[in-house]
Amino acid sequence: MTTRPGTRRGQRRPATRPATRGRVHSFVHSGAHGGAAFTPDALSVGARHLEVGNEWVASFAVTGFPREVHPGWLSPLLTYPGRLDVALHVEPIDPATAAARLKKQLAKLESGRRHTAEHGRLYDPQVEAATEDAYDLSSRVARGEGKLFRVGLYLTVHAGSERALSDEVAALRSLCASLLLDAKHTTYRSLQGWVSTLPMGLDLIGMRRTFDTSALSAAFPFTSPDLPAADPTSVAAPSGVLYGYNVGSQGLVHWDRFGEGMHNHNSVILGRSGAGKSYLVKLELLRSLYRGIEIAVVDPEDEYARLASAVGGTYVHLGAQNVRLNPFDLPIHTRADGRRTAPKDALVRRSLFLHTVIAVLVGGELEAAERAALDRGIAATYQSVGVTADARTWTRPAPTLRMLRDQLATAGQAGDRAAGELAARLHPFVEGAFQQLFDGQTTTNPEGHLVVFSLRDLPDELKGIGTLLVLDAVWRRVSNPAIRRPRLVVVDEAWLLMKERSGAEFLFRMAKASRKHWAGLTVCTQDTADVLGSDLGKAVVANAATQILLRQASQAIDEITHTFDLSAGERAFLLSADRGQGLLSAGTQRVAFQAIASPTEHYLVTSNPAELAEYAADGDTDESLDAEQSYVDLGWADDTAAEHQTETGEFGSVDDDTQIELDAT
């Protein structure tokens, strides 16, 4: 798309005096370090510069513009690496006045063309282009397709010394030349030029050019064409999350995973160790919280504790004393009217889920005889506590893994060899070294805008099952039809779950069904081979509408190139990318970006050991978490946990038409 801001040559320059009629709209953009002080200690005025306090400034007026521009074409000025103030002053022109001026301008241009033709001279290409533009503008104004505006564009560059100012002026003029902008010093009017770029709406220079509506909208300075969340020519603020800036154009990269037209809200982040995966994920989560998105995180390395403490989130420390998740809990929740509901096949679904849990616990697929014995054992375990196919019994306390082991052991003593072997394989999880996570009823019922499940203190043998139980608890809340809101579920280091086929299947089902419940799954892993080395892993990647690739190892780049159909340039970029640089792919759009964070955000999301040690040396440790721990970290008595579970209704279900009402007694 191209638009024409007006004629570059052959058009009389408007008067330089300030406008006295009509409304003037001014847009001012300041550099990253803020605007100049309005009350400086001293002000020294030179011919082409000012000394404002301890700063040196020089101002420019743009007198020449390119003939054709594209939306957001001024963004390179806004991403100038130094401190630069950009002011755009706009004054609408009355339609009658615009028509009269265009008619007069056309008469001049046409007269010049005829004079040239009569004397047999060659046509001036610039005059010919100006004439065509004038005719085009005149016809559009006459049809009411646009209006005319008088626009003034002024720039002020700042530096710390006179020599530095000379370098900045040279760099700015080079940048303007690359944009086909003719920037002139405000010679002997340096003070007026500086004031014209202050956020005061004053144009003391008055060097204007005529723009039409389309050209003015394209020149609006606060737009970015990189992965826009809306129309790039729109003046509306982006609705997505800021990921960083474009490595190529220096424009800002916004992306809205919950935007209209998205096939799903899932995201996958792949990168080698140290590429900045967790840093990027934490930045996205922190900025998503501002949008009211509820977030749950599976944290295998305890990297999100400081972030959760800072934003008032809930921290669930699996592996601590009296912190348990019982896989036998039925998916029961409480509606807004206080009634408890559950799916009609809740018991069957929970039994099938327990097959997945046991398969992950024992570290592999079960034999046919073992699956049959397990199915009989699960049914007998529920019946032993009075839970049957009758929905009125589902509110009774759920059985535990120890009860299932006992049922299998009893069946083994009765001659069922498969049941006996399975009971022996479950022994470490009910009486052995790994019993802490399963020895009793559920003691936690996490809720809040940010819930972090820490798995750091779980043994390596339990991190896979811990991730599975956490995802199941999160999914119950996500699929609760009584609470509809956008949610994100983050699985950091997903290879811990993907290495087991049963865990990979559960993650795949979650990726497929999240969109129906207004939720997005974020899968983050450094072991690309475990994800892309299986059909289920590739299916999880394929079901992510947003895909982010950070720096890759040379051993995995061939698989990455084949899976994501990378070009040679994209392949080379991923091999040499710095920390925090990556390739964001969303459908047919791809952009290379650099993640950026404010000092406060960096303090909350960094996991650099050197920086954390420095914070600890300054007296800023995580000890404050102990005083602010949520109730879920302290644990509840079994009766209290069951009572809270019934009152809050955290555990989700399926659609309303497949639910039944439970008897409150």
Cα Rg: 33 Å
Shape: elongated
Structural category is: alpha+beta
Number of helices: 24
Which strand order does the major sheet show? Answer: 10-9-21-20-19-11-18-17-12-16-13
Question: How many angstroms does the end-to-end distance come to?
Answer: 67 Å
* Quaternary structure type: single chain
Number of strands: 22
CATH superfamily of one domain, please? P-loop containing nucleotide triphosphate hydrolases
CATH topology of one domain: Rossmann fold
The percent of residues in helical segments reads 25-40%
Q: Please give the CATH class of one domain.
A: Alpha Beta
Low-pLDDT residue spans: 1-37, 229-237, 623-665
Largest sheet: 11 strands, mixed
Query: How big a fraction of the residues is strand?
Result: 15-25%
CATH architectural arrangement of one domain: 3-Layer(aba) Sandwich
Describe it.
The chain is α+β, with helices and mostly antiparallel strands and about 675 residues long. Among the domains are: about 25-220, no CATH class; about 265-325 and about 445-635, Rossmann fold (3-Layer(aba) Sandwich), CATH 3.40.50.300. Helix content is about 40%, strand content about 20%. The strands form 3 sheets. Strands 10-9-21-20-19-11-18-17-12-16-13 form an 11-stranded mixed sheet. Strands 1, 2, 3, 4, 5, 6, 7 and 8 form an 8-stranded antiparallel sheet that branches. Strand 3 and strand 4 (about 55-65) form a beta hairpin. Helix 2 packs antiparallel against helix 3 and helix 10 packs across helix 12 (about 415-425). The model is unreliable at about 1-35, about 230-235 and about 625-665 (pLDDT under 50). It comes from Prauserella flavalba. It holds the Pfam family P-loop_TraG. This is Conjugal transfer protein TraC. InterPro entries: P-loop_NTPase, P-loop_TraG, T4SS_component.
